[in-house]
Amino acid sequence: MKTVLSMLAMGTALIATSAMAQDTTGTVNITGSVAPKCLVVPGAGSTFDRTVALGELAGTDGKMRTNLEADFNAAAVTARVVCTTAAPTISVNADAITAQTATAVAGYDNSIDFTANVAVTTTTGPAGPFANDSAAAAGADTVIGGRVANNGSDNIAITATNFRTNTINDLLAADPVYTGKITVVIKPGA
User: Fold this and answer.
1) Which of 18, 67, 128, 134 is close enough to 113 for a disulfide, judged by CB 3.0 to 4.6 Å?
2) What is the mean pLDDT of each run of 10 residues along the chain (190 residues)?
């Protein structure tokens, strides 16, 4: 009888143990987000600055030098910009190269107009050029047409063409400082 009771007690213990051994599952959900943004790399900044010093703008005859385009483009102005979005936009604005103090009178010019051109490398190839002439209003935001390439290389190339004075015979007014600029704005887009 002791043996039967002992076996009965062991069976009850086994049933109780298996009823208590249940698996429990917990879930930890992980969430996050990536904001739409564009940035200059390296450094994750929001601006890039380059300077192209053209030196003397007038030739020996006092008129605008004819090789300004070649000199500007020889500077190879490039940058690396990346965006987290698939449809970033670009706008380009060229400001004429203008004398700081000299004024223009008949036969003289105190500014040089030009066209700024920006080419963008995307993940599917080249886009652009996106252009703006300094004699025109600033360019509007334009969809680049793809993700900006993130391949470790510069993906923005800026050139300038069509340098000119108001008339071909204008002499440039003497001034120690002429300045102009090209502004490129790349936004995340929609």
Assistant:
1) 134
2) 52 56 91 93 86 96 96 95 95 97 93 97 94 95 94 95 94 96 92
